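Assemble and predict.
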Amino acid sequence: MPQLETATFLPQLVWLLITFVLLYVLMAKVALPRVAAVIDERKRRVDHDLEEAARLKRETEKAIAEYEQALAQARSKAQAIAGDTRAKIAADAAASRAKVEAEIAEQTKAAEARIQAAKQQALASLQSVAAAAAADVVSRLSGAAPAADAVEAAVAQALAKQRG
Amino acid sequence: MNVAAESHSPLEQFKIKCLALCGEGGELQAYSFTNSSLFMVLAVIGATLLMVYGMRQRSLVPGRLQSVAELSYEFVANMVRENVGTNGRQYFPFIFTLFMFILFSNMLGMVPYSFTVTSHIIVTFALAIVVFLGVTLIAIARNGIHFFTHFMPAGVPLWLAPVIIPIEIISYLSRPISLSLRLAANMLAGHTTLKVFAGFVVSMIGMGGVLSASGILPLIMVTALTALEFLIAFLQAYVFSILTCLYLSEAVNMEHH
């Protein structure tokens, strides 16, 4: 069995020592620091990018909040303007209605006064018309013209009796 | 050299042949460059190519070879971190070298007509004894006299001491033996089995006639075994490294009561 040939032990050990130490030096001094540097650099970059993304996200959220706040403000302002306008229009309408109503009332009053005046006039002229008619009726029936004073007094008496 | 004789003995592949710096009449000298030396050098070249040439671009988005190099680094780094902890950081280059040396030796051994450095007990024993002595020295340096409480675990009744202490000492001393034997025996057995089954293929085809066709059976076996051997080549490098980590963990994380 070749594994038990003791004469081969020493050269194997010598070359194992040479090659293993060589590999150790190559790995420890050259290869591993390089790999570690690359991996660290990548990790650093990824962490930095993640941080940047988080920062951008925070900024976006802030912008959205600001936008929403502005929107809410604009909305309340618009509502206030609409309310003011509505109140103003209502006030204007009420004022003009009051004015029109006042005019109508005035005109109505004037018309009523005119009617009253006409009625008074009509009533005043009624007595003279009645007296003339009565004198005419008397002259036709009796053939003699009554005294104007007597007729007027009789008519006034009759009208007063009727009214009373 | 007799090629026919070589192919008939499954152990012939483990023979040490002097390639250069030989003594008189092919005698081996301490510094003789043998086929074993050649494959050790190839393992160093292979590992260095992967870790240095593979990382030459140092790109943030790694290519294929760089991915493998980084994967190896992360694999061993995680192994050390999980099994030894932060105290093990300074030993990481050694564990990494150990893992890469054994892995490349095992993998190069899978190439037909090559030589498996780790199939020789003297090589694996040398690696194991370095680990054993190193770990023991670290343990004594870090824990002083307290190190010897390892052989008398806390909470064990005093009357058990005469039994426990010899058992613990034997168990501790057998570590380099089990560590080296496990690796060498796996390589030796695996490669011998492959050779034996490959030999069956040749001899069954040689029977002639209809029987020649049956040579396909050991061929299938050899194919399956080759896949298994690749797994074992990796696994044994891993086992050797992780056991080293566990021994190291005991040394650096010994609890003080």
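The helical segments of chain B are 3-8, 35-53, 64-83, 92-108, 121-143, 161-173, 175-206, 216-252.
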